[in-house]
Every structure is written in C-alpha cells, then in structure tokens.
Amino acid sequence: MDNTISLYEGRLVRLGPLDHAKDPPIVARWTNDPLLRYLLAGVARPFSVEATRKLLEKVEKQMEESKNLFHFTVRLKKDNRLLGLARIFWIDFHNGTGVLSLGIGDAADRQHGYGSDALDLLLRFAFGELNLHRLSVWPGADNPALIHLVEKAGFKEEARRRQAAFHDGKYIDVILLGLLHTEWEKKS
Question: What is the pTM of this model?
Fold first, then answer.
C-alpha cells in the first residue's frame, strides 16, 4: 500500500468522525428515507433530532467498547458538508472478515462520484489498514445504485436472501456480495 496516499481523504470526499453537535439535524432528515434507515442499524422509523443525537452517541460508545466496528461520516472535501454515512462492522479479525455499508443521504448528492470515492477510501482502510481478507455488503434488491457501485469496485454476488428485508411497505430480497483482498489488489 502506498503510504503517501491519505487513508481518509479522496478526490472528492473525506471520511470523518461523527459530530454529535452538528450532524443530528441532517441525519434525522435522512431517517425519512427507507434506504438510509437500513444503513443506520436499528432505525425502523424516522427519528427526531434528539433521538438521532442519542443514536450517534450510542454508536460512538459501541465503537469504543467493541473494537470491531468503525463508523464514518462522508464529507465533501471542499467545504466539509455532510454527504453520507459509512461503516465497517461485524469485523472478525481472526478470520479477516467484515461487512461494509455506505449511503449518500440526499438524493441531490447522488450520482456525482461521491459514493465511488468514499467506497475507494473504505476499501483502502479495510484491506490496507485493518488487513482484512474479505468484505461483504448486503444491499436490498431495491437499491440498484449501491449494487452497481460495489460491483464496479469488484464485489461479486454470492447469495440472495429472498424477501429478507422489509422496506417501504414491501418485502425485498437482500443480495450478499463479497470482495477478497486479492481481488481488490488486482483492481487497484
């Protein structure tokens, strides 16, 4: 891995910490989107700003206690505006595995390359810094943009869990995709 390249700063975005003071109003707005609620584990309904602040504090505490969970904000490099959220979770350091999730909050910020840039940073962090052997991602079938994004990065579909998630009033399939460290290295 090239040590001259920042782990947390890409061409367009940077990965940053959660900000309990500034982020809750924005993240609370995103909890109205079923696809973004899926990214926020345990959020099955829209949250108030105060409930979102408590959730972010809880997430921060979980990261400190578990040591196998990393949450990031995705921020626009030019003005540090919050664009989305990302996490690598259920990390099993013995087997070198983890699960990744990523979401860009506002529809107007999607399709500008921010997700691709953030995914590149997350993969560099997971494979280069954490030394993971494989990453998984589990998007719902109703999220073709994320499926396309991760497939473009080299993830391959490994399984499909039929009607395993309830989004926006209907049951949808969950697609299990995986990427090995060696596959990522070939694409990098």
Answer: 0.91
